[in-house]
Amino acid sequence: MTKNLPTLSPLLVQDAVRAALIEDLGRAGDVTTEATIPAGAIARASISAREHGVIAGLPLARDAFLAMDVSVAFEARLSDGDAVVAGDCVARINGPARAMLSSERVALNFLGHLSGVASLTAQYVKRVAHTKAKICDTRKTTPGLRVLEKYAVRCGGGANHRFGLDDAVLIKDNHIAVAGGVAAALRAAKAHVGHLTKIEIEVDTIAQLREVLTEGADAVLLDNMSASQLREAVALISGCFPCEASGGVTLETVAEIAETGVDVISVGALTHSARTLDLGLDIEIF
């Protein structure tokens, strides 16, 4: 699995972990742990994989434990982006039992969810490995977790699309309808943004694509096209700009889409439909 991963900002990690712990601890804290576990109890635990997949989110799991007590020792046995099989030890934790029990769920929620995103991404990437196509995400992310989920996509070997509405122009069908057509939308976008802002436009017919080729763009999104339409589009574009396929992409169809010659395949399911990777924490109090 790729190790060319972006660095998660410590401030972003801390903010996400803090918000999750505040939500879980509520107004009174972990009343179960405080009622049943002596204040001085020490524990050790391990986080293990219960199925195969790809790990992502270790920095958040670590910070969840340390946020409750800085004396907790978190030893990652793997790195984000590493593949795991059932039984693999992902991390070892030692320290105050109360802190570990109170942060366990938040740590596993982040680690399981992000590992699920990475694992699903890796499946898509594997299906298109024989082609030049890159698998990338979309903005169909969990509110508040976009940066983390897009990081997990990278851990799974995928690539990132735009992070928000402000970092690139993506003219979609509704923009085209209101703007008065493909040409009008492209001309307006070029007049509005600076020279460093990329402009991509979505088309769903070959006729629209021909308009884009006349007007010019930095990239084109081929939306919900059949494999034969995609091949025709790729031939027409002939390398003038990157072409992206999107819409209705599944693990069963992604290879055929990639084989048409498109450069990028965007898959909303990477973030909105990824199943949590099954990870468990086993704790021993001594």
Account of the protein in words:
This protein is of the alpha/beta class. It has 2 domains: 10-118 and 274-285, Quinolinate phosphoribosyl transferase, N-terminal domain (Aldehyde Oxidoreductase, domain 3), CATH 3.90.1170; 126-272, TIM Barrel (Alpha-Beta Barrel). It has helices at 10-25, 31-36, 58-68, 97-127, 146-155, 173-179, 182-192, 206-215, 227-237, 254-258, 269-272; strands at residues 42-49, 53-54, 73-76, 83-84, 89-96, 134-136, 169-171, 199-203, 219-223, 243-246, 264-266, 279-285. Strands 6-11-10-9-8-7 form a 6-stranded parallel β-sheet. A 4-stranded antiparallel β-sheet has the order 3-5-1-12, covered by helices on one side. α1 crosses α3 and α6 (173-179) crosses α7. It is elongated.
Q: Features of this protein?
A:
286 residues; alpha/beta; TIM Barrel; 2 domains; 6-stranded parallel beta sheet; 11 helices; 12 strands; elongated
Summarize the SSE layout with pairings.
Layout: H1 10-25, H2 31-36, E1 42-49, E2 53-54, H3 58-68, E3 73-76, E4 83-84, E5 89-96, H4 97-127, E6 134-136, H5 146-155, E7 169-171, H6 173-179, H7 182-192, E8 199-203, H8 206-215, E9 219-223, H9 227-237, E10 243-246, H10 254-258, E11 264-266, H11 269-272, E12 279-285
